[in-house]
Amino acid sequence: MIAVRDLVVRFDRKGAPAVAGVSFAIEKGETFGLVGESGCGKSTVLRAIAGLVPGHSGDVLLDGRPVPARRDRAFYSRVQMVFQDPYGSLHPRQTIAAQLAEPLRNLGLNGGPARVDRALETVGLDPAFRWRFPHELSGGQRQRVAIARALIVEPEVLLLDEPTSALDVSVQAEILNLLTELRRRRGLTYLLVSHDLAVISHMCGELAVMQRGRILERLDVERLRAGTVEHPYSAELLAASEAYGELRPA
Amino acid sequence: MSAPLVSARNLTVRFATQKGPVDAVRGVSFDLGREKIGIVGESGSGKSTVGRALMRLLPRSATVAADRLVVCDTDVLAADEKIMRRIRGRRIGLIMQDPKYSLNPVVPVGLQIAETFRLHSPAHAGARAAREATLALLRQVRIHDPERVAGLYPHQISGGMGQRVMIAMVLAGGPEVLIADEPTSALDVTVRMEVLSLLDELVARKGLGLLFISHDLNLVRRFCDRVLIMYAGRVVEALKASEIDHAKHPYTQGLLASLPLIRQPREILPTLVRDPAWRESA
Ligand SMILES: Nc1ncnc2c1ncn2[C@@H]1O[C@H](COP(=O)(O)OP(=O)(O)OP(=O)(O)O)[C@@H](O)[C@H]1O
Ligand SMILES: Nc1ncnc2c1ncn2[C@@H]1O[C@H](COP(=O)(O)OP(=O)(O)OP(=O)(O)O)[C@@H](O)[C@H]1O
Ligand SMILES: [Mg+2]
Ligand SMILES: [Mg+2]
């Protein structure tokens, strides 16, 4: 469905590239996870796919065909992104209703208040939030608006950058169940970045462990669950996560 | 026992919006001593609003009331803005939930940390001392290449780097009370543990009081002394952190049940059925 080939992103000429030759392909209806140390280049990979990093090299393929360097409407009607910083991706002086209707309008789809209300409801927000401005929401409410805005155009591929990091685990469960349900019903394809290996294990069929702009290791989720990772850094990450998350359900 | 660093009694915060008032905090009471209190709670339950009320950093649309709201011996409801400016940053620091948007977008992050350091250092440190302190702080929060990162603007750093820059900046002020609003949510587990042990060491060595707002139950259980559970603007349960597994409130129990686990995949995660009565009973 979506793939990258030899993706390289360099922000300054002198230093090491932020993304140093990353390749992977995701089949339709699958979820691919990206994990790794803070600053290793995960968001940059997603932003490059979305066409937001000028001057990357390598290919981004949608259905096997390279996408245009300037991503067009057709691309954004099929691929949407949920940014790691929801605050930064929302317009500060527009109501939530206006921001949810905007992608519909941009893509020439018909919107209307009912569709906006439904989008809010799917992420567990009361339709009354349509009149608020981003600064009048809590962190987790903003993150859910960002998810609603990506879903409202009914894309086929979602690039999800830490989409539940600001949510309490009960709301996180609702959002993850929503994503699972959309995948089952409409065959959505996800590229998911998360620091939470339990979320990755829950959502993904396959994942890649990144460090300093490179993929160190690719894993089937079974190997993550069984703890049979190979690269020392992956093993370290997994051991730390397991030691950390001893908590069991009540 | 000495007087608490923070004392809140019956704190309420109401926001005025175009479509009427929003009661974000409805009667919250707690004392913070030289300890680590975690605040866990539903998205939108008022956690960040409590943190900002302690700093008196709420927008004008907010009305704050309390029977008592004392922070570092200062009556926050009565103090004039000059006094608040003197304690903000120096005596009480706030690590904000959206660090990259709390930083100044047009100033390199290193300069912002250095500026905070100079402003609050007793002897008004010079530029060189401030720069050195900045690099040391960045190293302490596990930024590998502090020289490079210090020169970057907020939009050029990753999510987790933004959180660590914000932590470094708040630590540069040397506060006695630290309010940390989801300070490590964008960090991988290894770096997160390192940053937490840094905070832990500061609390122990300097006798800080730490209010740690987090969604991460594992973190709160291992790292904090006590936990307040918030729901719909109230504290519905207060527990020893080590006893969180034995929580009594159905909201807290529901949280524990909806955690995904690495080794035990489930097709669908259990979710809460929120009882309207939870809004009212404390
Ligand atoms: N616009 C930019 N200019 C310069 N450097 C940048 C820019 N954007 C990102 N970088 C650098 O690229 C590297 C990778 O950043 P990226 O945001 O992709 O990391 P990440 O893996 O998403 O980290 P985190 O988990 O902390 O969000 C970082 O060192 C960052 O400073
Ligand atoms: N300026 C504002 N105007 C109106 N309502 C507001 C404003 N700021 C916050 N709120 C509302 O007050 C409630 C509490 O918000 P707060 O940010 O304190 O929640 P929170 O517990 O920190 O949530 P999260 O975990 O999602 O960050 C929310 O319902 C939010 O929508
Ligand atoms: Mg990132
Ligand atoms: Mg908050």
From TrEMBL, chain A:
ABC transporter domain: which residues?
A: 2-237
Which InterPro entries has this protein been placed in? AAA+_ATPase (IPR003593), ABC_transp_ATP-bind (IPR050319), ABC_transporter-like_ATP-bd (IPR003439), ABC_transporter-like_CS (IPR017871), P-loop_NTPase (IPR027417)
Protein name from the UniProt record: ABC transporter ATP-binding protein
Signal peptide as annotated in the record: none
Q: Which family does it belong to?
A: Belongs to the ABC transporter superfamily.
Q: Which GO terms describe its molecular function?
A: ATP binding
Q: Which residues cross the membrane?
A: none
Q: Which SMART domains does UniProt cross-reference here?
A: AAA
Going by the UniProt record, its keywords in alphabetical order are: ATP-binding, Nucleotide-binding, Transport
Which source organism does the UniProt entry give? Alsobacter ponti
TrEMBL record, chain B:
Q: Name one GO molecular function term.
A: ATP binding
Entry's CDD domains? ABC_NikE_OppD_transporters
- Where does the UniProt annotation locate this protein? Cell inner membrane
Q: Which PROSITE patterns match?
A: ABC_TRANSPORTER_2 (PS50893)
Q: Where is the signal peptide?
A: none
- Annotated ABC transporter domain ranges read 6-257
Stored Pfam families: ABC_tran (PF00005)
UniProt xrefs under SUPFAM superfamilies? P-loop containing nucleoside triphosphate hydrolases
InterPro entries recorded for this chain?
Answer: AAA+_ATPase, ABC_Ni/Peptide_Import, ABC_transporter-like_ATP-bd, P-loop_NTPase
Which Gene3D superfamilies does the UniProt entry name for this protein?
Answer: P-loop containing nucleotide triphosphate hydrolases (3.40.50.300)
Q: Which residues form a coiled coil?
A: none
UniProt keyword terms in alphabetical order: ATP-binding, Cell membrane, Membrane, Nucleotide-binding, Transport
PANTHER family assigned? DIPEPTIDE TRANSPORT ATP-BINDING PROTEIN DPPD (PTHR43297:SF2), OLIGOPEPTIDE TRANSPORT ATP-BINDING PROTEIN APPD (PTHR43297)
Identification of the protein by name: ABC transporter ATP-binding protein
The organism is Alsobacter ponti
